[in-house]
Q: What sequence folds into this?
């Protein structure tokens, strides 16, 4: 069965991530494209460095080719944002990326992009799931790969330069060049190395890369930037006195940053820094968009500059849709993805990292100094974030309590409002908030709480732990 979650379809390799399911998905999408009468426009396919990613892309392409849909294959492992960029730039109706992003190594999956290089929304993914259900096994045909290449049904492309030039043109390369920054890079065995290194070297930065070899086990770690997974990057930055450490997740749509003091910057801080930078230093005007599990510091910064902050459910498709609607400057999520007005309609770790480097160069300040400036100008609020594993029965019990019966624990702060848009979120009158929601990408319950002090945020998480028996 093919079921899409927050960030595409993900499954354990050999369990549901199989050749049969990949080809079923390709056939389902082919049927959808034919129904929409756009099959002559072709489809763009890309892949990351995971086990079976390249093979899966080819299996899918063979089905599209058999359906008479030209498959444009990006023939080297590439960042997800590159595929989104290409779909957007050349007006393709669909794109497909073989990746399970930041999931553990035993997973793989597929992200589907629609017109404009956007993450397919629920309506689209539900439709694909339904098309898949209707496909009969014997209807799935494939063309032999070499034959399809020979006849032009499969076309291999590699548009890396176009993608890089787009970023290089959008940032102040001159400012970066003048600073001669020393940067440590950790692609986490994923796909960002070539692109980020090329951009940074073009901007005359000194670049020292770790974890660049191809390792489908990701060095035994999760290819997801966090304080725990970036210890080696942190040590490299501190020991060698670098200005910055940059990491990206497995498919390079998310970013992780280590500052000059070796401190891991939470994606929330990165978002706040960049919004503040674009408004204050670059004079951009406009709102910001965040999901409901992302810091309300963004609201404070927006308010300070007379702008608005919009809240949407978790999932970048919601962020980009709202950005479009409100012409927002920047949109992002606490899970580490962001994009900026004028760039692609999806998250891009490579672009975000380059913009951050520009910010350091232009402001001539350390990240910690800019954070201090922001807190002084806009106030502060602190987040506690916790994840919990559960059994199936436990999941049902939690769901019943929180969502069906809409119960809350005894909370020691006056409540302003409650939302059930995505999980259960309580907004306190003091500006704090807490959300409990099930992840759409991993079998986890997530609790996020932001309060005037970290102690208060931790206390609320503990109240929920007791309440839900976690
Ligand atoms: O909290 P989750 O449902 O696991 O989602 C966390 C993240 O997963 C994926 O990376 C999606 O692309 C993001 O939009 C989302 O924020």
A:
């Amino acid at each position: 069965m093919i079921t899409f979650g927050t960030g595409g379809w993900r499954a354990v390799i050999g369990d549901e991530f199989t050749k049969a399911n990949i080809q079923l998905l390709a056939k389902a999408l082919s049927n959808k494209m034919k129904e929409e009468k756009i099959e002559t426009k072709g489809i763009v396919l890309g892949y990351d460095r995971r086990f079976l990613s390249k093979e899966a892309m080819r299996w899918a392409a063979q089905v599209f080719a058999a359906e008479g849909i030209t498959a444009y294959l990006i023939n080297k492992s590439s960042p997800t944002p590159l595929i989104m960029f290409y779909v957007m730039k050349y007006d393709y109706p669909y794109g497909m990326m073989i990746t399970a992003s930041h999931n553990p190594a035993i997973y793989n999956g597929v992200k589907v992009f629609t017109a404009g290089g956007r993450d397919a929304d629920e309506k689209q993914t539900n439709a694909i799931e339904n098309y898949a259900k209707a496909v009969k096994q014997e209807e799935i045909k494939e063309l032999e790969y070499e034959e399809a290449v020979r006849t032009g049904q499969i076309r291999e492309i590699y548009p890396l330069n176009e993608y890089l030039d787009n970023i290089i043109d959008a940032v102040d390369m001159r400012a970066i060049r003048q600073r001669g920054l020393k940067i440590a890079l950790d692609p986490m065995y994923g796909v960002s190395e070539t692109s980020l290194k090329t951009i940074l070297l073009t901007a005359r930065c000194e670049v020292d890369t770790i974890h660049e070899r191809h390792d489908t086990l990701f060095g035994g770690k999760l290819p997801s930037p966090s304080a725990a997974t970036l210890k080696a990057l942190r040590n490299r930055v501190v020991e060698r006195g670098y200005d910055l450490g940059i990491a990206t997740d497995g498919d390079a749509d998310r970013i992780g940053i280590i500052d000059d003091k070796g401190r891991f910057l939470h994606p929330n801080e990165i978002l706040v820094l960049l919004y503040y930078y674009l408004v204050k230093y670059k004079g951009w005007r406009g709102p910001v968009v965040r999901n409901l599990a992302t810091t309300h510091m963004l609201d404070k910064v927006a308010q300070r500059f007379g702008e608005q902050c919009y809240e949407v459910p978790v999932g970048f498709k919601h962020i980009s849709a709202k950005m479009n609607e409100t012409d927002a400057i920047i949109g992002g999520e606490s899970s580490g993805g962001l994009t900026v007005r004028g760039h692609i309609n999806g998250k891009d770790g490579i672009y975000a990292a380059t913009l951050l480097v520009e910010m350091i160069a232009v402001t001539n300040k350390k990240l910690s100094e800019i954070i201090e400036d922001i807190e002084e100008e806009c106030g502060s609020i602190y987040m506690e974030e916790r994840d919990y594993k559960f059994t199936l029965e436990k999941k049902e019990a939690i769901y019943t309590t929180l969502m069906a019966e809409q119960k809350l624990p005894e909370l020691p702060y006056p409540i302003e409002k409650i939302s059930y848009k995505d999980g259960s979120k309580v907004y306190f009158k003091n500006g704090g908030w807490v959300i409990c929601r099930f992840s759409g990408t991993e079998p986890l319950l997530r609790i996020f709480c932001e309060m005037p002090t970290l102690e208060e945020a931790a206390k609320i998480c503990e109240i929920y732990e007791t309440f839900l028996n976690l």
Q: What stands out?
A: The domain at 163-378 is CATH 3.40.120.10 (Alpha-D-Glucose-1,6-Bisphosphate; Chain A, domain 3). The longest helix spans residues 19-35. The chain has a mean pLDDT of 96. The radius of gyration is 22 Å.
